[in-house]
Every structure is written in structure tokens, then in C-alpha cells.
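Input chain follows. Return C-alpha cells only.
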Amino acid sequence: MEPDVRYPIGKYEIMPFSEALKQEWLADIKFLPNLLEAAIANLDEHQLQTPYRDGGWTVHQLVHHIADSHMNAYIRFKLGFTETTPTIKPYDENAWVLTADVENLPVNLSVTLLFALHQRWHEFLKHFTDAAWERTVYHPEQRKEFTLWQLFGMYAWHGRHHVAHITTLRNRMRW
């Protein structure tokens, strides 16, 4: 059976809290910019403009999307940590990848942004108490609350998920 190129590492699954998983996910947050930078190393403009799958975003769009998504994530964590069950702001990620900054600016700007963002995010998260992970945010589109632990796992997965889109594309194309 052909692997699903949409989910090269599988779909995200909510996992119960564990210290080992917390350390793994902290490493995912800390090192995502390095992994992304390595995944796009030496790609030319044609390669950056290649969709990772039929009907999917280009590598260029994926890189900018990760920055957009993780900026939103950082704000969601700050709100969830400092407020009581705040309502988080959803956004249309498909519309965001069509904006002028994504279309016109090189991917290295988003990679640079991710290095700074993930350093702050990692520093913030590594000081959470066990109780802090149980704080919640409300997602109005999904009409449900998520714990910060659940969001943590989702965003750790999200970075690995999109890096795998790029690395599996490189392997398929033999770049």
C-alpha cells in the first residue's frame, strides 16, 4: 500500500502527559528551525516552487506556513498561560499562503523568524509546571477546549509533519 503523502509521519494523536514525552516535544520545538533549514538546503527556485503533493502547497508556501502557524501557536500558549480559558483566534491558513509576503519574500526570512521564535517558545515552555499543562484555551471553530499539553503535542507534531513533507518530496524527486 502506497504511503499517504499528506501524512508522512502519520496523523496527530493526543497523548497523555509523561516526562519523557515532554522532553521529546521540547526538543521538537527547540530544533525545528534547524531541521527545516536542513530540509530546504540547496533547493533552487524551481524546487521551492514544487508542491509537496498533487494539489498541495509548494515547499516555499510550506516554509512560510510553518512560520505563520507557529507565531499563532506562540500567542495561543501565552494567552492560555496568562488567562483563564481564553478564546483563541482561528485563521484561514489557505488564504494566508496566498498573501503578498508569502508570494514575494524568500523562505530564509521565515526560517530566520523561526529561529528566534522557537528559542523564545522553548524557553517559555521548559519552565511550565505540571499544572500549567492542564490550562486550557477554547477553539471557537472546533467548539471545544484544548489543554496546553494537547496543543504542545500538536505543534511538536506539526513541525515534524511539514519537514517530512519536504524531505519525502526530496527523496521522491531525488534532489
